[in-house]
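Entry for the shared binder. Reason: the reviewer on the internal report wants the predicted structure included alongside the sequence.
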Amino acid sequence: MQQLYPLRFQPILKQALWGGRRLKTLLGKPIGHGDDYAESWELVDHGDAQSVVEFGPLAGTTLHELVRTRGPELLGRHHPLDRFPLLLKFLDAQKTLSVQVHPNDQQAARQSPPDAGKTEAWLVLATEPGSLIYAGLHAHVHRDTLRQSLEQGNCESLLHRFEPSVGDCIFIPAGTVHALGAGIVVAEIQQSSDTTFRLFDWNRVGPDGRPRPLHIDRALEVIDFERGPVTARQPQPTGLPGRESLVSCPHFRLDRVRLSESLPLGGEDRCHIVSVLAGTIRMEGDSSPDALSKGSTVLLPATARAVTATPAEEAILLDAYLP
């Protein structure tokens, strides 16, 4: 049987009215001629949305098939799982996204069909002057206040907002009202879920000329009104060379690694999702002849020993993994 190796997957590109062109110009994704490319799903195992191995002997294999047939090797200490539990994507918000909220695991399990909850984190890759992130409600905003504002056709005054900087990490637990503002590009790590409740869409219409559906009642059921405003997180030292912790929660951990010399990545009997945010690296065991450059993502299987990553110049990586 073919031993698992560092796995690259074909990106799944998605278009939406709020997208743009920066998935290509900033991250090198193979988009078409339109100006509405909104998301690049780098790693996903969720229903029909399936990442497919791009290179090496396992080319053409879906991520779900690897979970099903090679689970102990892929997941290590976290085997068995019904599906790969994390989803990594890049988003280009050329226009402001809708104001939305996601349920937690218990709430999502009661949906039809049931799903996982959706806790997520953003790492800001690009902004424009005046770009805003909306994250959390102002203190003392209650359910009735929010509903009344939504019924009047606005809720912006109730949302905490701030101007992010490149490199900021924003943690969005399930139940947090949020929206990405125009001009922002982020890398997002989240639970593998696609359950979203839209509260407000800035009174705009979709491609068909009609307003997009809102889900106000369901959203109000899952909002955590005790959470309050959300701000960028302060990175924490890990004691390891070049590595700092951005998020540590029950669903995932997210580190940023500044690579100025060869260092081992992965190991620990768990899989790691590594994305290049700046620079270029060569990775031991990589099945592609091309180096990993900005926007590239690789999955390091749990049973592969820690592999050596070597930068051509200083590189910045995101490393996402299960607790």
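Summary line for the report: The two ends are 29 Å apart (CA to CA).
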